[in-house]
Amino acid sequence: MSGLVFGSAPGSAPGSATGPATGPATGGAPRGATRPAGAGSGAATTAYVLRRAWVGGATRDDVLVEVADGRFTRVEPGGAVGEGRAAVVLDGLVVPGQANAHSHAFHRALRGRTQRGRGTFWTWREQMYAVAARLDPDSYHRLARAVLGEIVASGVTTLGEFHYLHHRPDGTPYPDHAMELALVEAARAVGLRLTLLDTCYLSSGFGAPVEGVQRRCSDGSAQAWAERRAALVERLAGVDDVVVGAAIHSVRAVPRADLPTVVAAAAGDPLHVHLSEQPAENAACLAAYGVTPTRLLADAGALGPRTTAVHATHLTDADVDLLGGSGTRVCPCPTTERDLGDGVGPARRLADAGAVLSLGSDSHAVVDPWEEMRALELDERLTSRRRGHWSADELLAAGTDHAGLGFPDAGRLEVGARADLVVLDTSSPRTAGTGDDEHTAVFAASAADVLAVMVDGRWVVGPAAPAPAQPLGAALAAAIQEVLP
Ligand SMILES: [Zn+2]
């Protein structure tokens, strides 16, 4: 299948094929605007027949789906379209929208550049800071809009943006949350839901003052961070498409004494934290405090189901027990960890201990949620020399964990859930002959096989989406050129 077929109720005349999938929508609210809850989808019911769809943990044929006001109102395998009703027929394999739980949009500017030659995580970090120093609200918005366009076109419907570029390069504030709203508006322009993980970042390392471009990140104190974030929460109150979460950048960047302030401020909202990505971080934490980063976070009350520990690569057995026993979410970012030479974390052991897995593309060296899913299995094969750690269903569950981003009502094709759909091409050179089921999605498909994406009942990618003002590649090239040192 090379495109969507728009048909009608069984028994009536077939519809005509449309063109190939195109880039994301570029419409959306004007900058600074808010979108009230429930708006934008209209009250009319639209019916779809999904020829193949992953529903309730299995791939089913001819699933009748009805959507009203951005939610599924009917999901019925083999269901009949009502008398006199029309339904849109979707060929290919339909799966729920993916959640990308860990992103730094501006890192996309480094793809193909930081990979040249040798280096370490720490030399990569210097190159990343050089781009960070050049961004202002307008260039940040243009870059994020292009990058988020790439992300939504890969099949993602909620993005967790771990955002720490709050201020001007010298650390003085912008008026009216300019950098944060640049991201919000970028997400709305491409039709993506956003969880803005407003990050507390106070130190260049275990209490040392911020230096250089890090001044952009620091609010000066945890209390000042909490106050600025609270004002942002208020600024975005009542919208349906943005959640303002919180983040502890890392145990390097937030001193132990400040952790409880961040935890208290985040109460009830998603709280994310970079955790033990590098052995050097563990060693420095042990030297400073005498405990591992995981233990430090546990003692500060920072673990639990609303918390997502990003990476969690280098853990002790006790760390695994602390994360699993508290039901903390863990977000490996396999393609970035691969790119940076971080190592392979104990994802299976964490899940067995009780942690909930999600996935992120982090630095965007690769933007492909299908690759992240299979990487969880394939990287673990390399370290264990055994196969079959994860089922395709488990990997799809990790890929569709919107709950850790504050959208527990997304990621499933079921009545009442947010109407997100991803249509995968099952006849491409990558996917043809692979069974047209969940194994096609996890072990064969790539971002290039995404034909269409629906978010909250609206098509934002594909033939039924608004045409983009500029081809995605051209938008990315222009936005990146603008911010390179
Ligand atoms: Zn990160």
Task: Name every ligand kind in the structure.
Answer: zinc ion
CATH topology of the domain at 98-405: TIM Barrel
Give the biggest beta sheet: 8 strands, parallel
- Kindly state the number of beta strands: 17
The largest beta-sheet arranges its strands as 5-6-7-10-11-12-13-14
Q: Alpha-carbon distance between the termini?
A: 43 Å
DSSP summary: helix tally: 14
Radius of gyration: 22 Å
What is the second-level CATH architecture of the domain at 98-405? Alpha-Beta Barrel
Strand content: 15-25%
How helix-rich are the residues, as a percent range?
25-40%
Shape: globular
SSE map:
Blueprint: E1 45-55, E2 58-68, E3 71-77, E4 88-95, E5 98-103, H1 121-132, H2 137-153, E6 156-163, H3 178-190, E7 193-200, E8 203-205, E9 208-209, H4 222-235, E10 242-248, H5 259-265, E11 271-275, H6 279-289, H7 293-299, E12 307-311, H8 317-325, E13 329-331, H9 334-340, H10 347-353, E14 356-357, H11 369-384, H12 392-399, E15 421-424, H13 438-443, E16 450-455, E17 458-461, H14 472-483
Parallel strand pairs: 1-4, 5-6, 6-7, 7-10, 10-11, 11-12, 12-13, 13-14
Antiparallel strand pairs: 1-2, 2-3, 4-15, 8-9, 15-16, 16-17
Helix pairs in contact: 2-3, 2-14, 4-5, 8-10, 11-12
The chain binds zinc ion (ZN).
